[in-house]
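Re: that backbone. Tokens:
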């Protein structure tokens, strides 16, 4: 201790050298705030064109798909969650597997199985978007004296539009409560005369009611605008005008 006290210049030089080393290291250190992470997991979703029990969906679609993709390289295990009209398969890979190549191979197998299943089922493969998961900015909780459905209606009509209009907000997801639904009754004779099936009409409605998606941004000088694609039904009249037959532009209200 006495040696340190008797040599103040040396101590100051050591401290100054340590500080300089820290400054230089900080400038040359490359830090990734949100490092890229790719999970060894792909998903396969199966949807039925009509109402189907989970047992039927598992027997006719899930088991053939599992048998087809189980032969792919690098798969560690496969888990399936079967519900009414839809099922999700979780395909886990070993950490050393090339995720891009495995995803391409999975898409090829899914396309081959889709051809064998026919038009009754829609099979699609996709991977988790870790970038979208990391972009989650804020989670809000709404409480009130009314019922859960009343709170949901207030959130849908007043809170959600205001949040979506804020610059930089790509999307707003709401959980909880019951959503309003519209029941569409089809005329069998009218469908037969037009050569349509219930699956055709359902697909048309699904295509016309895609969720709000963030497309990107446009910069003009110092102004930046965020572009979203909105494709949903604002009222019953908009649903009735959905075109179900391209030739003649026949709307949904005619069937």
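Recovered sequence:
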């Amino acid at each position: 201790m006495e040696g340190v006290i008797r040599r103040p210049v040396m101590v100051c030089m050591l401290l100054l050298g340590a500080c300089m080393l820290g400054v230089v290291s900080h400038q040359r250190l490359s830090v990734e705030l949100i490092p890229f992470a790719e999970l060894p997991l792909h998903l396969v979703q199966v949807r039925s064109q009509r109402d189907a029990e989970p047992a039927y969906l598992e027997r006719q679609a899930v088991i053939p798909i599992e048998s087809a993709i189980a032969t792919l390289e690098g798969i560690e295990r496969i888990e399936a969650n079967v519900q009414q009209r839809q099922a999700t398969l979780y395909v886990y890979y070993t950490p050393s597997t090339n995720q891009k190549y495995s995803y391409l191979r999975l898409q090829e197998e899914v396309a081959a199985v889709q051809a064998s299943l026919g038009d009754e089922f829609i099979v699609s493969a996709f991977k988790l978007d870790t970038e979208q998961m990391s972009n989650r900015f804020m989670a809000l909780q709404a409480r009130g004296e009314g019922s859960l459905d009343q709170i949901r209606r207030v959130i849908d009509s007043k809170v959600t539009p205001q949040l979506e209009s804020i610059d930089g907000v790509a999307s707003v997801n709401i959980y909880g409560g019951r959503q309003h639904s519209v029941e569409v009754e089809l005329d069998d004779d009218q469908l037969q005369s037009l050569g349509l099936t219930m699956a055709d009409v359902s697909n048309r409605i699904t295509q016309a009611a895609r969720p709000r998606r963030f497309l990107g941004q446009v910069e003009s000088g110092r102004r930046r605008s965020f572009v979203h694609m909105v494709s949903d039904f604002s009222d019953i009249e908009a649903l009735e005008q959905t075109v179900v037959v391209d030739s003649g532009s026949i709307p949904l209200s005619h069937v």
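The domain at 183-255 is CATH 3.30.2090.10 (Multidrug efflux transporter AcrB TolC docking domain; DN and DC subdomains). The chain is about 40% helix and 20% strand.
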